Amino acid sequence: MNGEPADTGTTTPEQRLAQLGIEIPVVAAPVASYVPALRTGSYVYTSGQLPLRDGDLIRTGKVGAEVSPEEAHECARQCALNALAAVRAEIGELSAVVRVVKVVGFVASAPGFTAQPQVINGASELLGNVFGPAGQHARSAVGVAVLPLDAPVEVELVVEVR
To answer: What pTM was estimated for this model as a whole?
Structure first.
């Protein structure tokens, strides 16, 4: 698929988001010295996106302790939406995305919590719904001790664009 438009029928990613009742949020302001997304050649790399909604974390704490796996799944979905906002700000419209190449998800995990892949499915499922087959991607789901601002989840994307 390298270099070809995403095969998602006649609807654009923005139209599919609307059909799902989902709005792309405003790009989240960085919490340190970096940019939300950077394009180099045909790829856009996002910085790690936290589960911010309207400027606030939707949950804090460790998954498997203060945050349930279901809540963390929703956090991963929100992180992916924030990453899509950063991508769109960089390229203008999501229909320029050829393929989601890689998703990296970090899960602030309580000791003994091992369901990081199921948590990051929140991001992966959203990307599949938005981009269809072009949303299938390579992925890492990593458990960590703590994330910025005590967020339970952080997600970054690499996408190929026209």
So the answer is: 0.93
